Amino acid sequence: MIPHRLSAHAKKTHQLHLLAHVKKGHKQQLHGIIFYEERNFQGRSYECMSDCSDMSSYLSRCQSCRVESGCFMVYERPNYMGMQFFLRRGEYHDMQRMMSMGMMFDTIRSCRMIPYHRGQFRMRIYERENFGGQMNELMDDCDNIMERYRMSDCMSCNVMDGHWLMYEQPHFRGRMMYLRPGEYRSFRDMGMSGTRFMSMRRITDMC
């Protein structure tokens, strides 16, 4: 097939994204991921080096991808909503088969680049929405909030430092959600209704 070509506007947008990753005085390694419409890196492709809120204008579906550098979060719906999956550097020949392990969704509609964080990690988790109920502060991974804190649920949180992954089951299993610094008053508003988060892990990969 003819390789997918970006419009002049899309190319300019990508150039601006690239410039955003170059800090004054020194350059950072750029992150990159290539999505393909078919399995085994076949069909039309789309290369992304930053966040993309809606991939439908570039690809009709995504069945495989290759992470050249960096770490990315991919989502089943536009605007970083719905089911999520964490990708580090490597080749993913069949996304549907890989995601079928309790996290099956048809295709990828948006993706978010995860910057590498240097420094401490700190997050406060709350038992109820809007920072209600029991509160505990984390600075490292927690594989089971019930065993460590006697918390039966986590429904809101405040990420002060670092980037984190939340998991619905203990020991970092099941559906996941990516969180960067900010306040999260209700996980339901993020398209994760009905999901309980029972373990949390810092994203320390340099990828």
Can you describe what's shown?
This protein has 207 residues and is mainly β. It has 2 domains: 32-114, Crystallins (Gamma-B Crystallin, domain 1); 122-202, Gamma-B Crystallin, domain 1 (Sandwich), CATH 2.60.20.10. Helix content is 11%, strand content 42%. The chain is built from 3 helices and 16 strands. It has helices at 8-20, 95-99, 145-149, and strands spanning 22-23, 26-27, 32-38, 42-48, 64-69, 71-77, 81-87, 90-92, 110-114, 122-128, 132-138, 156-161, 164-169, 173-179, 182-184, 199-202. The strands form 5 sheets. The chain has a 4-stranded antiparallel sheet with strand order 4-3-5-8. Strands 11-10-12-15 form a 4-stranded antiparallel sheet, with no helix packed on it. A 3-stranded antiparallel sheet has the order 7-6-9, with no helix packed on it. A hairpin with a 3-residue loop joins β13 (164-169) and β14 (173-179). The radius of gyration is 18 Å and the shape is elongated. InterPro entries: Beta/Gamma-Crystallin, Beta/gamma_crystallin, G_crystallin-like.
Give the second-level CATH assignment, the architecture of the largest domain: Sandwich
CATH fold group of the largest domain: Gamma-B Crystallin, domain 1
Q: Percent helix among the residues?
A: 10-25%
Written as H for each helix and E for each strand, in order along the chain, the element string is HEEEEEEEEHEEEHEEEEE
Number of strands: 16
Uncertain runs are: 1-6, 8-28
Strand order, largest beta sheet: 4-3-5-8
